[in-house]
Amino acid sequence: xxxxxxxxxxxxxxxxxxxxxxxxxxxxxxxxxxxxxxxxxxxxxxxxxxxxxxxxxxxxxxxxxxxxxxxxxxxxxxxxxxxxxxxxxxxxxxxxxxxxxxxxxxxxxxxxxxxxxxxxxxxxxxxxxxxxxxxxxxxxxxxxxxxxxxxxxxxxxxxxxxxxxxxxxxxxxxxxxxxxxxxxxxxxxxxxxxxxxxxxxxxxxxxxxxxxxxxxxxxxxxxxxxxxxxxxxxxxxxxxxxxxxxxxxxxxxxxxxxxxxxxxxxxxxxxxxxxxxxxxxxxxxxxxxxxxxxxxxxxxxxxxxxxxxxxxxxxxxxxxxxxxxxxxxxxxxxxxxxxxxxxxxxxxxxxxxxxxxxxxxxxxxxxxxxxxxxxxxxx
Length: 379
Fold this sequence. Notes:
By secondary structure, the chain is α/β, with parallel strands linked by helices. It has helices spanning about 5-10, 15-30, 40-45, 50-60, 95-110, 125-140, 155-165, 185-205, 220-235, 255-270, 280-295, 310-315, 335-345, 365-370; strands at about 65, 75, 85-90, 115-120, 145, 170, 180, 210-215, 245-250, 275-280, 300-305, 320-325, 355, 360. It has three domains: about 5-75, Winged helix-like DNA-binding domain superfamily/Winged helix DNA-binding domain (Arc Repressor Mutant, subunit A, Orthogonal Bundle), CATH 1.10.10.10; about 80-185 and about 330-350, 3-Layer(aba) Sandwich (Rossmann fold), CATH 3.40.50.2300; about 185-325 and about 360-370, Rossmann fold (3-Layer(aba) Sandwich). The protein is built from 14 helices and 14 strands. The strands form three sheets. The chain has a six-stranded parallel β-sheet with strand order 4-3-5-6-7-13, with helices on both faces. Strands 9-8-10-11-12-14 form a six-stranded mixed β-sheet, with helices on both faces. A two-stranded antiparallel ribbon has the order 1-2. Helix 7 links the parallel strand 5 and strand 6 (about 170). The protein starts with a helix and ends in a 9-residue tail after the last helix.
């Protein structure tokens, strides 16, 4: 059936035919400021020439269309059609549970929205992040969602994309000119630190020998605010705790590096009561494992960030000293990121930063928030 025949059919009661036809004319423009003659609009819409002429005149009078000197019309309205929108996504790494959950949720949300997604893996590597930004330019994506960890190359990645006029959403690590999506890091750290301070007062009568902060310096200043907030939260409960007894270790965002660093720490610091705040759950669990291996589990209390599956399962262990993790709900990132991408492409007003929801997940509430988790296989 031709477009003209379809338009001749009865319209639903809640639709105005002239508005529908005006929208058809606007959608006929395939790019901003594309010049089209009346005859070209007739061909693209299937409407009668007289109808097109009347509607074009009305849209011009309303300021929606503009007429050029050669009798051509252009439209300044930018339409985003879901089926034609291509989203570029560069994940942090597929070796991290948190990143895997972000990736899975984003793919689900893109599929539900009918959007094409080009997905690449930054492999927790700065050079890969730069190469992937160049690849997204080659793919001619409409918008890029960057989940890369290294602050040192954030400006390079952002520059590559913005030079190609591709808007950018940056997950967790800010990129110049990009809309930030992720944790409110200081607030998340406060939640973790307050939990540690409360635990120390309740179980150790506030007698803490050291505070151990597991960092990831390459991520830059903003993610480090989790640990700044954690220390502030601990001091709310232990106000006299001195700076001289705060120890910082580089965990490099991984379980293994944190495990190695805390093993070495224990060789030189002996049997002490230690509160541990880590930049993420991988580092938190690495520190916990080091204390366990040393037979010193009763001398630590650990809090992390992310509430990934491994951390949630650790909270379900009856003898754990993992007291909690601040959830960012990565399984919800996808829907929020797709909405944000669509708003940016539609040129709607968007804030410079969009923060995730935060919630302390503990042994007492883990099943309320994550009751559908698979039951872990115990070796």
